[in-house]
Amino acid sequence: MSPTALHAVRRRVLRGDDPAISVVDPRDDDETALHVAGLLGERLVVTSSYYPSTSPVHPERVTYQLRYMATDFDVQGRGYGARVAEAAEAILRERGVEEIWANGRDTALGFYRATGWRTVPGSEHLSPETQLPHTVIYKSLLDDADLS
Ligand SMILES: CC(C)(COP(=O)(O)OP(=O)(O)OC[C@H]1O[C@@H](n2cnc3c(N)ncnc32)[C@H](O)[C@@H]1OP(=O)(O)O)[C@@H](O)C(=O)NCCC(=O)NCCS
User: Fold this and answer.
1) Model confidence over 101-136: pLDDT tens digits?
2) Of 66, 77, 79, 96, whose CB neighbour count within 10 A is largest?
3) Pocket residues: Cβ below 6 A from ligand 1
4) Which CATH superfamily is domain 3-146 in?
5) Contact call for residues 100 and 89 (beta carbons, < 8 A)
6) Centre of ligand 1 from the C-alpha of residue 148, in Å
């Protein structure tokens, strides 16, 4: 999946469709980045991108950061975001990733909680990019038996 294919949905859903705002992460073209999209026929409707990144929650673990999680407006609430996340997490597990983290938009925390993420108390902040309220969130990809 080429990261540029994701730009339209990233921009429309997360940046108010403003053509002047960048929807590029400097790590997008890194070989280690993982971009997982959801397609309805030929239409790309879900975006998600994961980058190797030391977690502020568990820096000792092998962790990736999730950015640009978005489902296009007219197809939200149909389970597509959760299905794409599940597929991405399976790939990350195969890569040996132990945990994922993100700066979760507060309006999306219901989605993250429903899909197994936890919030970090006291980590509430405004995103420097959007000025919208966010909270640091994380999700273990380990089986319970692997956790000490
Ligand atoms: C957040 C977002 C990615 C969720 O994608 P989606 O495809 O609509 O979510 P799904 O339909 O797969 O929902 C999965 C679960 O999360 C719940 N959920 C989804 N969005 C929710 C919300 N905003 N508040 C509460 N619960 C929510 C669903 O009810 C469902 O729960 P269930 O399994 O118990 O039925 C999507 O709404 C979106 O793009 N929002 C705007 C952009 C955004 O805020 N992205 C996150 C940036 S950090």
Assistant:
1) 999 999 999 999 999 999 999 999 999 999 999 999
2) 66
3) 13-14, 69-71, 76-82, 104-105, 107-108, 110-111, 114-115
4) Gcn5-related N-acetyltransferase (GNAT) (3.40.630.30)
5) yes
6) 31
